[in-house]
Amino acid sequence: MPVVGRWTGREAAALRQTRRMSIRAYAAHLGLSTSTVLNWDRRGTLARLNTETQQLLDIDLERAPEDVRIRFHAEVGVMPAQQDPVSDITFPDAQADAEEKDPMRRRTVLASLVTVITTPITTPANGQLDLDKASGLVVKIRRAYQSSRYRQALTMLPPALSALASGAHDDARATALTSEAYQVASGLLLKFGDPVLAAIAAERSITAARACGDPLAVASSMRAVAHGLLAGGHAAHASRAAETAAHKLATTIKMRSAQEFSVYGALLLRGAVAAARSENTNAAGTLLDEASLAARHTGPDGNARWTTFNPTNVLIHRVGVAVELGDAGAAIRLAQSIDPTAIQVPERRAMLLLDTGRAFIQWGKYERAFSAIQSAEEQAPEEVRTRRSVHLMLHDIARRSPLSMQRHVRTYIESLGASV
């Protein structure tokens, strides 16, 4: 349970200090940029933290050892939370020294997820499963993913999947949670560059979704299937799969709620990007227009069922589609028309910046492309540090840019550990 009413730089800096962590180590621990954590120390109560960071610090304090909570209480004068009873679902704390450039740590954690994904599904042990705790853990995993804290999500997923597998499979809620967890696992595996295992996770997600009988769960899982097909080089198949799933959803249920329009629209957006990559300009445009109509039924910052589907997200995807079609000028004009403050999810802010960077590369504006990538790292550090596609962009800039900036770009690449 959170014990800080509203976090400012003062409380955030105090939590770092009571954890006995350096600014660099704590930034890596939270998946934030070093400059963000440094700003907390410099500005104190004047540093106002956004909602995602507030939630991140709530979770970090909740998971902190008892001695850290006591020191934090003494430092800032808030009541420490009661220690929760031992949960049926546990997961290891992120290691304080787990720097984002530590490949061994990342491989070790990733291996545990791979083990769960590749273990054959057997008859469940019908063990007791606290569904409220399981649901809470899946929410934390979802938040970590959308906040670009991929290592944190990666750490939580294996024990969550194992715990869900131990429960009875005839419980619709448990099966739906299993579908969600495997959907996130598929997305993470794509982020870490493993489309084969991502496809296995996506298949398990949709199998669980069908078992729970929820059309929205099935449609949500189809997003992961389409994404995996796209990552595997099957763009035309991905587009058809996403479009078919969207239209099936629209004919299966009465489209009334924001959740229904969000899942439907998110499928259309995924189909539009896939269509553009397969050079089907007409299909991409049609799917984007359909998504725009669906977005009218969501809030301006909608994130129903973790889709981040809303009018701004449709515009972000229009930028990505323009880049896929090689229309750099249109992509940049669209990007400049988007209000960054309207983008609530860090992963989406980074997506816009990286697509803008791709457009600048197409346009031959390498300095501006490099600046866009650096801005993306500020917004979502692990999106830049983790993804091989971003590393390839950087190496492309280093190879093509003027000699005057090549050394600076290469130094940045080395700082990320961005090998390709």
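Next protein, fold it too.
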Amino acid sequence: MQHRRDAVAAVARNEPSENALVYCCAVLRAEPGNAADPDAVAVLVEDRQVGYVPREVAPAVARWLAAHNDAYGVLVDAVISRGSVLPDGRVMRYEMAIDLPNGVEPQKTPPRWPIPVRRNGHIRLSLAADGGYAGEVWLPPLHDEVLHPDGLADIYPPPDGGPVIAFAVTKRKLGRYFIGTVPREDWVSRYGSTRSAQLIDVMGRSATIRFDPK
């Protein structure tokens, strides 16, 4: 998505040193009167314009909106990620994934903005009664895949000693999809060499990742 960094940052609210991870809703609104591009489709979050649908797909989205005759646009699920500033001063672009057409809700009246769920930084883990740990995560777009029926998740400790990375596993196991990180020191103290986890309580883009006790 073509975005405005300052506008996205105002929604993400991540610290400069950490990547954003925000599950939210966005409105897609056609701009037929846009002099620069009559096919332009604006993207709004919390009633703030954060950017535009990419130019290469905007005409198709604009036609879809016109066919539905929705003056206020359509409400879709979206996820904002990345956006940190690295120690060497390099600025990472924000990424915003939009779900379309799944989850589309026509807006006949001005939208009531759901409160974004901000999960910036590492996965925040809580201790369970059986000694395991669990934390809320968001699920990335899986394209033509679906989650593994057992909710499997893979764990990868990078050899350079960086944060441990968690990936969602799909049914056909054709790819791994990033869902979050855990600080290396926390991982070693809690789990040692554990290499798998489970996704539970999946609701749309929201889920809980659970790690069994050692």
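About the second fold: Residues 1 and 106 are 21 Å apart (CA to CA).
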